[in-house]
TrEMBL record:
Keywords: Cytoplasm, Lipid biosynthesis, Lipid metabolism, NAD, NADP, Nucleotide-binding, Oxidoreductase, Phospholipid biosynthesis, Phospholipid metabolism. It catalyses: sn-glycerol 3-phosphate + NADP(+) = dihydroxyacetone phosphate + NADPH + H(+); sn-glycerol 3-phosphate + NAD(+) = dihydroxyacetone phosphate + NADH + H(+). Pathway: Membrane lipid metabolism; glycerophospholipid metabolism. This is Glycerol-3-phosphate dehydrogenase [NAD(P)+]. One of its GO terms (molecular function) is NAD binding. Residues 3-32, 37-130 form the Glycerol-3-phosphate dehydrogenase NAD-dependent N-terminal domain. Signal peptide: none annotated. Substrate binds at K79, R225, N226. GO terms for biological process: carbohydrate metabolic process; glycerol-3-phosphate biosynthetic process; glycerol-3-phosphate catabolic process; glycerophospholipid metabolic process; phospholipid biosynthetic process. It comes from Gloeobacter kilaueensis (strain ATCC BAA-2537 / CCAP 1431/1 / ULC 316 / JS1).
């Protein structure tokens, strides 16, 4: 396949390397690289977006101006929300309604995939044919690729887990223990399902690789940038200090405030997100956020 990869950060370079090792012809575009976007897109059969959320709208405009080859499969890997709480694939869908669109998401820390450690992911699309083609394109002995028809659910699993991963980093920095971490991840999953199903995703998708799988990876690995942000907050550092030293993008920082604002407007309960927001905003220390979660009204688990 001829693959154009947009975004030469951690994930873009990793997927480009994986695709090259599978004998695809790969061209990697970045805003500072030597290749023109129009040349990279010219005969691409697959356009893989590995951009941070803040770059997506601007690059879509550039792709529209450069021209997207008819029939090229768009593959989104961005795990974020824009200011209006839309996930990245919805921006691609609005700009290119006639092109097949696939979301690729799962427990995929770039550094582990790059090192050739075994991993699995999900490719989801309204077009089963497009999902199958991308499955064939990226599957290897070390990278197992499943398909799904729930594109929204697969994307939201990857987007929403970032906020819980920040909370998990805080929990570990405070030394709260394995019981607390299990409670956080499990109630985090309940919060993700509440939000995801509100937006129309299927609940069962969140128990799969792109939901629970990615939640477990991101909440348990110091390789995760979102976890690193939370760990720093738990150590009492300021967000600006943490972000100044962070290598790469922690999408959960923006996702938390966008989600909390949205949830307030539609009266959706997101207690973990609310506390993560307060911590990110420096409004309260971690122990106060913890006390706020523990002293919520007693309720049924469902
Ligand atoms: N790194 C991972 O392990 C991983 C795994 C799966 C998904 N993701 C998701 O992929 C996305 C990208 O993550 P990453 O880790 O590669 O980020 P990164 O910070 O390592 O790289 C982002 C890249 O985008 C470029 N960029 C930034 N602003 C831009 C703009 N306005 N126009 C064009 N390019 C711009 C940067 O120069 C950089 O090359 C995120 O949404 C992330 O959640 C990351
Ligand atoms: O480093 P993070 O926190 O962006 O996590 C990377 C991936 O999303 C893990 O699947």
């Amino acid at each position: 396949m001829r693959i154009a990869v947009l975004g030469a950060g951690s994930w873009g370079t990793t997927l480009a390397q994986l695709a090259t090792s599978l004998d695809h012809r790969v061209q990697l575009w970045s805003r500072t690289g030597p290749l023109a976007l129009s040349a990279v897109l010219a005969d691409a059969q697959v356009v893989l977006s590995c951009l941070p959320m803040r770059a997506v709208a601007g690059v879509i405009e550039q792709v529209a101006a450069a021209g997207l080859p008819p029939g090229a499969i768009l593959v989104n890997t961005t795990k974020g929300l824009d200011a209006t709480a839309r996930p990245a694939s919805q921006l691609w869908r609005s700009a290119f309604p006639d092109w097949p669109l696939v979301v690729l998401s799962g427990p995929n820390l770039a550094a582990e995939v790059r090192a050739g450690l075994p991993a699995a992911t999900v490719v989801a699309s309204a077009s089963p044919e497009a999902a199958r083609r991308i499955q064939q394109c990226f599957a290897s002995e070390r990278f197992r690729v499943y398909t799904s028809g729930d594109q929204l659910g697969v994307e939201l699993g990857g987007v929403l887990k970032n906020v819980v991963a920040i909370a998990a980093g805080v929990s570990d920095a405070l030394g709260l223990g394995a019981n607390a971490k299990a409670a956080l991840i499990t109630r985090g999953l309940a919060e993700i399902i509440r939000v995801g199903t509100h937006w129309g995703a299927q609940a069962e998708t969140f128990y799969g690789l792109s939901g629970l799988g990615d939640l477990l990876t991101t909440c348990n690995s110091a390789l995760s940038r979102n976890y690193q942000v939370g760990f720093g907050l738990g150590e009492g550092r300021t967000l600006s200090d943490i972000l100044a030293q962070l290598v790469g993008t922690a999408e959960g920082v923006n996702t938390a405030s966008i989600l909390a604002d949205y949830a307030r407007r539609v009266d959706l309960e997101v207690p973990i997100t609310d506390q993560v927001c307060a911590l990110l905003g420096g409004e309260r220390p971690p122990q106060v956020a913890l006390a706020a979660l523990m002293s919520r009204r007693l309720k049924d688990e469902s």
